[in-house]
User: What shape does this take?
Amino acid sequence: MSKKLCYVLCVLPLFAQAHEITSDEKFTPILNVGGRYLHSDSVYPVARLANALEAGQQASYQNGNAFDYGDVGLQVQWTNDLKILVKGSYHGNDLGNEFSLEQAWLNYDYDANKNNMLSVRIGRQHVALGMQNQEHSHNWTMGVEPLVMRASVADGWRDDGIDMRWQHENGWYAGFGVYEGNSFPSSKSSGLNALSARVGWQQDNNYLMGSIAHFNVNGRSTEQQTALTHSHSQASCEQAVVNMVCFAGDSQLAVLAGEWAFPHYKTVFNGEAWLKQEQGDLFSQTAKVDYQGIISGGWLMADYQIVRQLHSFLRYESLQARHQLTGANAALVATEAGIAQSSERPYRVGVGMMWTDDKGVRISLETHHEKINQQSNQLLLLRYQVDLWALVKSSQ
Assistant: This one.
């Protein structure tokens, strides 16, 4: 396989994963740190979205300066075809002052012929559901999570499993994955409970990708408590207890992601449209009812390059939902689950700028106006991030 084909196949379809290291070195350390300054007129993020069947509440971030994260890891390129990545992150007070193993996988690439490559990845990985989900939140262009993404997969879907993919020199690719499904919107249980598939095309900065996922939910808790840690594992609830509502059934997601660049105008447009459908039983100590829910929404972002190292952004996003509960005491169960006011349509508009240098330093500033749960809010987020390994190498 030519070097050009390897670049197209190995890098571009996965470009969103900031830690998909493309170095030719056998050992590539990962050492990143980040801080942030936040000012929000109201509680950010809101504890619950009134029109989404979430799992528990989110803890609020403190205003002011704070340590955000520290990443440590290592990628090893054993051969041209075989590499491994192990990366963990320590999260600051916003996410519970907790260290977690974010990625731990082995990847093997097989050159079927000069035009086609087959790959397999085994282990803990960011799942290819849309493009932004393939990237850790530390490295998102805008640090504020899109509403529909939060409602669909909390703060991102990564999982333990196996992913298989095919890629062609002309930019087409397809893939299929099987995972444990221990994280929202699924729940922790034995066996493999989640499937994903995608097909797409990418050349340079232009791409189009469609992806789907199916979860077998063996009892997901919507317990009314604040999340104090960053654990992606979602406990199951086979039997409801006080102040707990459980969902058992099937959850399906579909995501359409696209990007198109206009080099003459130094502008790139990208966005994602998400659709989530769930059906099954919703039960508490009060009652057990039939449940069907649909969540839809997305975001559109424009990226304008002011100069080589400075970009500006504009993003609009929205979220819609519809929930149908059938059975005795359905209205009461809806209230207990926090979806009684699901007719609201939250939205958010954000603008921002990002400066990067060639030594691993990135500074971004963004401000958003949002209306969520019938409350308006204005927030300002400043992030300062450093790739320490890149900084050390550049100084040598």
Notes: The first strand starts at residue 27 and ends at 40. Residues 3-10 form the longest helix (8 residues). The chain has one domain: 3-395. Residues 3-395 form a domain with the Porin fold (CATH 2.40.160.10).
